[in-house]
Specification:
single chain; 1537 residues; alpha+beta; 8-stranded parallel beta barrel; 6-stranded mixed beta sheet; globular
Length: 1537
């Protein structure tokens, strides 16, 4: 079934280049969707993603990969949103890998999909965290007829899963894990006259599942078979024998020698040497060592297996020299150095010399016999040295072997916790044998001759075992390992290690046999436990589990891994799809460590945040099966005390994962039940069994009644969603564990008093500290104490596995607190207005007791949370559970939030979402600041959202913001109050928030952060939806990236307390008005565009002509904000003076007319408006109210002088053609502290020869590169760093665009002027616009192109050229070399006036710019090869360096973002003209560059793109964090795509 989109769980995995995640575990559930998306390093590349997850209805084949198709939710040209998806419906382990270009695999990983387990007649789901498992040693179950009575103990004790050790025929050692035949059901389970089969087992397993709600799993043992397995005698190739593994021959020789030592010691033949059969002390151990070194090692000469027979080799070499042989160069490659070839059959002196290497290395001076002999002498010397080296290596192996042998003897015969085997006999040899020897003993010399008889040597099979600290991914029996000869194996003498090779073709019989075994198991059981998983070859386990899953798709796979590292564990978990890893409570040395394990193995913290359904896929740790004891552990009663069984079990039961135990633990069996030696039977179930009964158990036995209650509680907690966990170490022995349900806010708190030490010998503290439990205690779920009783003392029975009768459990369940025996009294204390705390004092919480309370919030808080969840459920159904409707809701909450938000304008949304500190200060406020931390970046919701985006996924409840929320309501009130004080719809949103927050203030403080975040996220996403609806279809249907950038429009465009724009004509329609907060009069409140945050956001520094019009197309026109764009264009038009548009607007009254380019950017925007907006051409007739109708008048009042926009445009063009020259008003330090006097003289004119607009002088900077020197120390004060006087290339491009457009308008009759009259040589002449247009077209490349040819006769200043194939930055600057500097400005001209450029030349220049100027986010503002280039901007640095001091290099290297937009747009435009191949390469580049902007934007707490970065994309602390034109130009690139 398809879930509705908001309920479906979607996880997103970002693919990054060269990222191999084989050792990272990603766990998913069936029904989840997994989306793969491209990380920044892959965007723009043609990535192909492969997976072996099968198509619907097809069988899983591990090596069968298919390509996943990309989904393009917003069209094919934007990589930020495209994804591949998998709908996960089948359990197992799946691999994915991806590549691009010629690389097939540039990254890979695995995902594991959990199985879904079902039980009962209705097949209801058993969640993995509900599992409680009990292990049974199968051989102790007796006849199968008795199994139900013995297994009923598991059912009655509350377990829902049984683990059987293997049910196959056992080997002669009788170990549960040494199987004689993997395929037969053990006949000893059939009573006389019966012959049970696997089908009968299957029927029983089904019955347990249906009638008892119990699932069954069993082990699979792939590593070894019993040494007496019949089939291994017929198929010795299935083990490691001396024929297929000749490298083991030396180890076998040593093993036989040690066996002969055993037989001689047993016969007392070494007593004379101080070595009796019974080893009891240190001197006996020393005697063992000396016998090994004096008798054993010298006799067997193991080093000979690795040596060369020197005489034979020298003779062979001599013969070759005498024949005059030359070395084979193909083999030696002319390299000197003697090579020894290891004998593949490992015979004594079997190693040989590679004669080619000998001939290459030892060359006689001449062929004379004397020189030949001399040469042979050298070889002999070298070979003797090499043999000696082998002797030394073997000596080291023997030292290790001696240490291991002695270590083994110490453990088996001397140590207290060892088996104390007693005297050496053939039955209990000195050490376990490493190899089988299926023949009569004979003398060692005779046995050595068997080595050369393959028919016999193939039956000497290596035993299995384990190696301490070994790499689990390496097979210790394969060549290259010396484990057997160094005696490092802790050996299992009853089992033979199996040799699978690389695949079924290497050992067909073994693979087929084990496949059958796997099929039987998977057919009849619900799951498997991989015994000894860490030493099972991975490829074998993979293959067998794939087989198993074809029989049982939801196979539950459990394993124990002792790899010693979580990363290595993950290799097994991910490749095999292991569902749960066995974890042992017995690994904890004290209650504190046991508590840490409960915390580690599952659950999220109490009060954790609500995570969105669509979220990143996070690595996880393997799901745990946490056992209070495993069948391999030592007995906890011996290690701890009998009293600890109950409290430690309770701690395990409170863990949020699968849990379990081993049969015998609950019955207090006071010893380990040995998997090898135990032959007695388990007692049967009898509800009325007496405490002294041996053959039967009931609820009175041991801690069974306690375990039953704990298991029931464990299952209920998991089933009811108590997924949050808190572990509190109350004192040295008491641990309190809380499980909390995040939707109902119920908790269960279990207080466990452990007894790791026997109270008879250990003094426990009699004062138990009181406990404070927040909330209202509803009931005592259970209270239980382990108590002594008079039922006799423990005596080991011979027939039944019996426990200690002297203890039982006193238990009471579901009682009111008053009736508790363990609690003395409780009192309610209130902690603040919203929290109840119950204080509990204990009286009988003795070691070995447990009490669990069910706690809910106090009634008022419970009701308030319910109402809060009710109002939140309008945003997501996940709040429905635990919600509660209100009888008479407050007025503010009666309408859904989306309805309130739909009334907001984008200017309102600017207030709701953004506004940095300085903007907020204009209104008398500021951004919220947390003492000891920092301030939020914005006063609006985005400020909070940026911080919570990091807190939420990591559940970082310790963050200062969370602490601030728990401590008081200050932040909560701040959020709603700043909106309530506004008027209209914003105030209504504020009231809605205030009403929601009024509930928030009455819930326990530990829950405030998560519910505050829930309200915040809901409000924010609703605001984003409202924003989207007000924008153009380009944004509404655009990718996430487009929408992020479009938010920049909301971020930058706002209305402040003071109007930033001069008034518009009152004749215009759709001009917004308000009552002034200062004068109380009606005034216009048009949106203005900030240049950047935080530095250019308020007051007179908010609005700049140049910045506004570079950003206007991207932020206003493309986003559909046409009226605001029109208002800004017309407001600036009203300030035209001297034919120029001001740079610093200063509301028009403080405007500075000191830039030559703003007017041309303004004209470009008028053109863009007219062409982009429906009926946009009408703007030309809109009235403009002029502030300065003449150059020298005082500002006019609004409406005093109005004219249509086309007249203003004509004036701007005419004034340039006439020539502009004036001195700035108030010239001097009042308007510019740094400028020299000449800098205040402004000139701009059209050069009659070329049509280029040029102007400026070397003391001012009239383009965007406008840094004025400020340092007296460095003597750059008053000197512009980049005057760019003459004709700047982008101004030439912009003027060409404007003139071309005017010509086109005139032709259509839409513009009343075809030129301008100017005085030339005293005569008035008409300069026609079409003539100007043609003049620019003809002059441009001739004047600006720097030829690739060094001898180009057209180049007037060849000595100034240092980059060829580029366009100059300016023409006829006062410093001629500045013309030739490589800067990114020519790309602007390419976009606005592409007709000026020849395609091939343009492409060449763009290639140079890409190679030299393109950085990670921005464009270098100067060629890095230029002598004054410096890429790091530091405005605070003042030193003697002219080129750097006080940030003089602002535009001399640092990487500005906005030119990248023009560079990429130019590249796309010309690539299209050059054909498909160039275009597709350019697309890759563009997407790759943009992906870095996308990543920056997503991660930026400002949600913006910076003004500039330092070189190579490094952060620049002096840059605006978010800049209007940076966002706008990148958005324009996406529009071009």
């Amino acid at each position: 079934m398809m879930l509705p989109q908001h309920l479906k769980q979607i996880r997103v995995l970002m693919l990054n280049d060269k990222q191999n995640l084989e050792r990272t575990l990603f766990r998913l559930e069936q029904g989840f969707e997994l989306q793969f998306r491209l990380g920044p390093s892959l965007q723009g590349r043609r990535v192909t993603l492969h997976t072996n997850y099968p198509l619907d209805g097809q069988r899983f084949e591990r090596h069968n990969f298919r390509v996943l198709a990309w989904n393009y939710p917003t069209g094919r040209e934007d990589d930020s949103d495209k994804f591949c998806s998998l709908d996960l419906q089948v359990a197992g382990s799946y691999e994915y890998y991806f590549g691009y270009g010629d690389t097939e695999r540039s990254g890979s990983g695995y995902i594991v999909v959990d199985p879904v387990l079902r039980v009962g007649p209705d097949l209801h789901v058993l969640p993995l965290d509900c599992i409680t498992i009990q292990t049974y040693l199968s051989k102790c179950l007796g006849y199968m007829d008795d199994w139900p009575d013995r297994l009923r103990v598991a059912k009655e004790s509350g377990y829902n899963m049984i683990h059987f050790t293997p049910l196959q025929t056992l080997g002669e050692s009788r170990s549960c894990y040494s199987l004689a035949d993997q395929l037969t059901f053990n006949p000893e389970f059939s009573s006389p006259g019966q012959n049970y089969s696997w089908a009968d087992v299957g029927a029983l397993v089904e019955k347990l599942k249906k009638d008892w709600n119990i699932l069954c799993i069993t082990d699979v043992v792939y590593n070894h078979t019993a040494a007496n397995s019949v089939w291994i005698k017929d198929h010795p190739e299935c083990g490691y024998n001396l024929v297929n593994s000749p490298h083991l021959r030396p180890a076998w020789v040593l093993d036989r020698a040690i066996w002969h030592l055993t037989t001689r010691m047993a016969e007392g033949r070494y007593e004379a040497k101080g070595l009796p059969a019974n080893i009891t002390n240190e001197s006996h151990l020393n005697a063992v060592r000396s016998v090994l070194w004096q008798d054993v090692f010298p006799q067997i000469k193991l080093w000979e297996f690795f040596q060369v027979r020197v005489d034979g080799a020298v003779d062979q070499f001599r013969a070759l020299l005498q024949k005059g042989s030359r070395p084979n160069l193909a083999k030696t490659g002319g390299e000197k150095g003697l090579r020894i070839i290891q004998d593949p059959n490992y015979r004594r002196y079997g190693n040989t010399v590679d004669m080619d290497s000998a001939l290459e290395t030892f060359v006689p001076h001449s062929p004379s016999p004397q020189h030949v002999e001399e040469c042979c002498g050298w070889l002999r010397e070298k070979l003797n040295a090499l043999n000696e080296e082998q002797h030394e290596i073997m000596k080291q192996h023997q030292e290790k072997a001696a240490n291991c042998i002695v270590g083994n003897i110490v453990y088996e015969r001397l140590e207290d916790h060892g088996p104390k085997l007693g005297p050496v006999t053939r039955k209990n040899p000195l050490v376990t044998r490493y190899f089988t020897f299926p023949f009569q003993d004979m003398a060692l010399e005779q046995e050595m001759q068997l080595l050369d008889q393959p028919g016999k040597a193939c039956h000497f099979l290596a035993h299995n075992g384990w190696v301490m600290g070994d790499d689990p991914l390496r097979n210790f029996a394969e060549p290259g390992s010396n484990v057997y000869v160094r005696r490092e194996l802790v050996c299992w003498g009853d089992s033979v290690k199996l040799r699978y090779g690389q695949g079924p073709e290497d050992c067909p019989y073994l693979w087929a046999h084990m496949q059958k075994y796997t099929e039987i198991t998977a057919k009849y059981f619900h799951g498997v436990r991989l015994d000894n998983c860490h030493s099972t070859p991975l490829h074998v386990a993979e293959y067998m589990l794939d087989v198993a899953r074809t029989f049982c798709p939801n196979l539950y796979v459990v394993a124990e891994l002792f790899t010693g590292s979580e990363e290595l564990d993950n290799v097994f978990v991910t490749k095999l799809g292991i569902s749960s890893l066995i974890r042992e409570a017995m690994s904890a040395a004290d209650s504190h460590e046991e508590g840490r394990l409960v915390h580690r193995y599952g659950g999220e913290p109490v009060g954790a945040f609500v995570q969105p359904s669509l979220r990143p896929l996070m690595p996880s740790i393997a799901h745990a099966m946490f056992l209070d004891v495993t069948h391999d552990n030592e007995c906890p009663i011996q290690l701890r005390s009998a009293l600890d069984s109950l409290p430690s079990s309770a701690m395990v039961s409170m863990a949020c994962c699968a849990t379990g135990s081993t049969r015998g633990y609950d019955e207090l069996v006071p010893h380990q039940i040995s998997v090898v030696k135990e032959e007695r039977f388990y007692p049967k179930w009898n509800p009325s069994a007496s405490p002294t009964s041996i053959s039967e158990v009931g609820l009175q036995t041991g801690i069974i009644s306690g375990k039953q209650a704990l298991n029931k509680m464990h299952q209920e907690l998991a089933a009811q969603g108590f997924i949050q966990v808190y572990v509190d170490q109350v004192d040295a022995d008491i641990v309190a564990i809380t499980r909390h349900c995040p939707s109902t806010h119920q908790s269960v708190v279990a207080v466990c008093r452990t007894a790791f030490w026997d109270p008879k010998t250990h003094q426990y503290n009699s004062n138990v500290p009181p406990m404070f439990i927040p909330g209202k205690i509803e009931e005592v779920v259970l209270e239980a104490r382990t108590v002594e009783r008079h039922a006799g003392s423990y005596k080991r029975d011979d027939r039944y596995i019996n426990g200690m009768p002297e203890y039982t459990v006193e238990i009471r369940e579901h009682i009111p607190l008053e009736q508790s025996v363990l609690v003395k009294k409780s009192g309610v204390t209130s902690k603040g207005p919203s929290e109840f705390v119950e204080e509990i004092t204990f009286q009988k919480l003795t070691p070995g007791s447990v009490i669990a309370f069910r706690v809910s919030l106090d009634p008022r808080a419970q009701k308030v949370v319910g109402m809060l969840r009710y109002y939140l459920s309008q945003f997501s159904p996940k709040y429905k559970r635990g919600s509660m409707a209100e009888d008479n809701p407050p007025e503010a909450l009666q309408k859904p939030l989306s309805q309130l938000m739909s009334k907001l304008t984008l200017a309102d949304l600017n207030v709701l979402l953004f506004r940095c500190d300085t903007e907020e200060q204009e209104d008398g406020g500021g951004c919220y600041s947390i003492p000891g931390w920092e301030s939020f970046k914005y006063a609006g919701l985005q400020g909070l959202m940026s911080v919570f985006a990091d807190i939420r996924p990591n559940n970082d409840l310790g963050h200062p913001v969370c602490a601030n929320l728990r401590e008081g309501d200050w932040l909560i009130d701040y959020v709603s109050n700043r909106l309530i004080h506004k008027e209209g719809p914003l105030a209504q949103v504020g009231q809605w928030l205030a009403a929601m927050f009024s509930y928030l203030k009455h819930i326990p403080r530990y829950l405030v952060p998560c519910y505050f975040d829930a309200i915040l996220v809901s409000t924010y996403t609703t605001a984003l939806d409202a924003t989207n609806k007000l924008m153009s279809s380009f944004v509404q249907n655009g990718s996430t990236f487009v929408r992020h950038l479009a938010l920049g429009s909301v971020q930058m465009c706002g209305v402040g307390r003071f109007p930033a724009l001069p008034p518009l004509s009152t004749k215009l329609e759709d001009v917004p008005y308000r009552i002034s907060p200062i004068t109380g009069q009606k005034e216009q409140c048009c949106v203005s565009l900030a240049a950047g945050l935080p530095h250019f956001s308020s007051g007179i520094f908010r609005c700049w002509g140049r910045d506004t019009f570079i950003a206007l197309r991207g932020l206003l026109l493309l986003t559909g904000r046409h009226i605001e764009a029109r208002n800004i264009i017309l407001a600036f038009a009203g300030t035209l003076r001297h034919g120029l548009i001001p740079n610093l607007l200063g509301e028009g009254r403080c405007a500075r007319y000191n830039c030559r380019d703003a007017v041309w950017w303004w004209l470009q925007c008028v053109q863009d408006y007219a062409t982009h907006v429906p009926h946009g051409i009408e703007i030309l007739r809109c009235p403009v109210t002029r502030m300065y109708p003449t150059d020298d008048c005082e500002p006019c009042k609004p409406g005093e002088m109005e004219q249509p926009l086309y007249d203003v445009i004509q004036e701007a063009l005419q004034r340039h053609l006439e020539g502009i020259s004036f001195r700035e008003r108030n010239a001097g330090p009042k308007i510019d502290m740094h400028m020299k006097d000449e800098g205040f003289n402004v000139t701009a004119k059209v050069d009659p020869a070329t049509g280029f607009v040029s102007g400026g002088n070397r003391f001012n900077c009239g383009t965007w590169m406008d840094k004025m020197g400020e340092s007296e120390r460095a003597r750059n004060k008053g000197m512009p760093a980049t005057p760019r006087d003459g004709a700047a290339v982008e101004i030439v491009g912009l003027s060409k665009s404007a003139v071309r457009w005017v010509v086109e308008l005139r032709a259509k009759g839409l513009f009343p002027y075809d030129g301008a009259k100017v005085l030339r040589d005293g005569k008035e002449v008409l300069v026609s616009y079409s003539q100007w247009n043609q003049q620019l077209q003809q002059a441009f490349e001739a004047s600006f192109w720097v030829s690739v040819d060094p001898n180009d006769p057209k180049e007037k200043c060849p000595d100034l050229v240092h980059k060829r194939g580029i366009y100059k930055d300016s023409y006829r600057a006062s410093s001629p070399w500045c013309d030739y500097q490589l800067r990114p400005n020519f790309t602007i001209a390419m976009v606005v006036a592409p007709e000026l450029f020849t395609v091939e030349k343009a492409w060449k220049a763009l290639e140079v710019a890409e190679q030299k100027l393109l950085g990670p986010l921005g464009m270098k503002t100067l060629d890095p090869d230029d002598m004054v280039y410096c890429g790091v901007y530091d405005n605070a640095l003042d030193n003697e360096n002219y080129n750097l001091a006080k940030g003089f290099n602002y535009h001399q290297g640092p990487e500005w973002l906005w030119p990248v937009g023009y560079f990429l747009r130019a590249k796309l435009y010309f690539a299209k003209k050059l054909g498909e191949e160039k275009y597709s390469m350019t697309m890759t580049l563009v997407k790759n560059v943009l992906s870095r902007h996308y990543t920056h934007l997503e991660r930026s707490p400002w949600k913006g793109l910076p003004e500039l970065t330092n070189e190579n994309g490094q952060f620049c602390p002096f840059s605006c964090e978010t800049q209007a034109w940076s966002l706008a130009t990148v958005l324009e690139v996406l529009r071009d795509l």
